[in-house]
Design a protein that fits this description.
With 404 residues, the chain is an alpha+beta fold. It has 19 helices and ten strands. The chain has one domain: Orthogonal Bundle (Cytochrome p450). Strand 1 and strand 2 form a beta hairpin. The longest helix has 19 residues. The model has no long low-confidence stretch (mean pLDDT 91).
Amino acid sequence: MQTLTQPDFKSQRFKANPFPFYARLREEAPVFRIKVPANEAGWLVTRYDDVNQVLKHGGISKDRIGSMTPEQQAKMPWFFKFFTPLVQNMLSRDPPDHTRLRALVHKAFTPRLIERLRSRVQTLSDSLLDTAARKGSMDLVAEYAFLLPVTIIAEMLGVPPGDYKKFQHWSNRLVSNTDMSDVLLSIPSVVMFTRYLRKLIAQRRTSLGDDLLSALIQAEEAGDKLTGDELVSMAFLLLVAGHETTVNLISGGTLALLQHPEQLERLRKEPGLIEPAVEELLRYASPVEVATERIARDGVTVSGVTIPRGDLVFAVLASANRDERHFKDPNTLDLGRDPNKHVSFGMGIHYCLGAPLARLEGQIAIQTLVNRFPNLRLSKPAESLKWRTGVLMRGPKQLPVKLT
């Protein structure tokens, strides 16, 4: 058998089907050492129970700088300073800062408030599909899976519609990093994104509205709840996380259905199945392949392997979601799967705040699409599709489909 080597997250072949590699890791090396940008040590954790341990472990931190030894901090590359303004958010903090920051935006993402968005999401889905229907075909990623969630989160934050494409480019650049050259090439996007957010915040200060960004500005102005850098970073996180994962859920979920026509037909015949169907698509397609990096605060033992202090830890959600120790027939798409305790939204205190919104958007977008177009099909062979590269996300880059 071929020796296990570090996965190539830039490889189209790997991104199209990483699951056999992860199955080998679960069996042979469930805690697998890799090298990450700046030649730091990192560890891929692939079994379901171990991923849960990592996501909930108090000794594994999200505060990368604060958890490093002084020697490790001294070795940080010079260009990391450019990223500092964008990592002052709840995703990159531990309690008590995490608790404080999450509380500021939690009220905007409760299931009850998200449910109020249902009619807007439905109207927008219908409008986007009206446009596509007139052509008879579309790139489902660019013309539907992207436009739906990005419009909703931008409206929630009060971002001008003309700016969507701009921050999509910056966002894609930032979540696609796999090596040092990618990190260096993303610096202009970091600088432009940071500058854009500071300008947007300055404009909003003079004209507050009832949007989420205005609420965050008012919290910052109220005193010690939010600093200026935290405001920029929270806006960044909400914009990026508010659309990137849902793009992959809608596009990757639709692709999975098209590749399993019996399940697609089942969903058409049983519309009440949409909620468990989306949970299964979240598990099967794993829109977030690998959780954002964590760092060992002290030596941490996972599956008998000790991860030294300061090493990066990557919980592979896509692998945990296919772990045969936890899921029956994990490589089978079963829209009625029950139970289905996938980890696509994470676990523990960093569980995805936007999960209710992503679920709502996924359910409406996919059900509306498949019900409206009974002849929906790929315009090119699935094996020729291009996939997004990078460690974190997994989804097709384009998904050309015929509608009639």
